[in-house]
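Z., the sequence and structure:
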Amino acid sequence: MSFSSRTKDELSRQFPAARHCQIAETAAILSLCGRVKISALDHFSIEIQTENVAVARKYFTLLKKTFNINTDVSIRQSGKLTGNRTYIVAVKEHEDALRVLQAVKFLDANGEVGEELSLVKNMVVQNPCCRRAFVRGAFLAAGSISDPERFYHFEIVCGTMAKARQLQGLIAAFDIDAKIVLRKKYYVVYIKEGSQIVDILGVMEASVALMELENIRILREMRGNVNRKVNCETANINKTVSAAVKQMEDIRYIRDTAGLESLPENLQEMARVRLERPEATLKELGEALDPPVGKSGVNHRLRKLSLIAEDLRGKAPASD
């Protein structure tokens, strides 16, 4: 089971204690994966379609607990034997459907279904607890979250920009900055920052998924810090080795052309100590001198030797 499926399974087993929160969660599920049917005789029925059995189970239970409504549940299998199943939860009784639609405020004053099942400026999500319930229902109905071992990505797919903006606003109420992107014909509300995905899991009260994600984030951060330190140390070692090789080349060139005896006494000593200790650090080279010299002093002398070698190379006759 994927991380996204485990998160939805966890959320599907949670039920708000307050009826207004139950209505808010019902509204979200119906808004994002439901539809209203109206017959020629103005007979209302509502249904949701989902490929996730956890969502179907949650919606079925919400209707039963909140409205004491009996629903029809059916399963549609795609043509292939291994194809996905679609779970359809329907309220076919006109009076029952009206009760749900009125409770979630999908009907206007004239009894018409408005706003394409969008809840912009709707009383259903006035309370913070109801906003949490609505976000939870929206994620169950049309959301997904990536495997945090690979990358961080949380999204909820909306059919219209109105729904996407309304959902973005509800999420923003919890100080979480969700973005909207158009993907084909859908509007996707998404979060990519790992810490903010942790926050949205907290908003939805997915405590188990939150702890799992936090543990993964800590491990990833530790691995990243270790890798950065190793890379930094490797770069420093390479830099030190390259510098030592260049210093040895310069000193050998001076020795083989002008001779080390041509150097001032302090540089002669520096050159001999470097030739004797090709792998020594600046600190170790300084401690080997008599009297000892600090790292800056050693570095200064080695730079002088390098300049002398460059000067000798410049004076050398060009080879045929």
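Residues 37 and 45 are 5 Å apart (CA to CA). The first strand starts at residue 34 and ends at 38.

Let me know what you think.
H.
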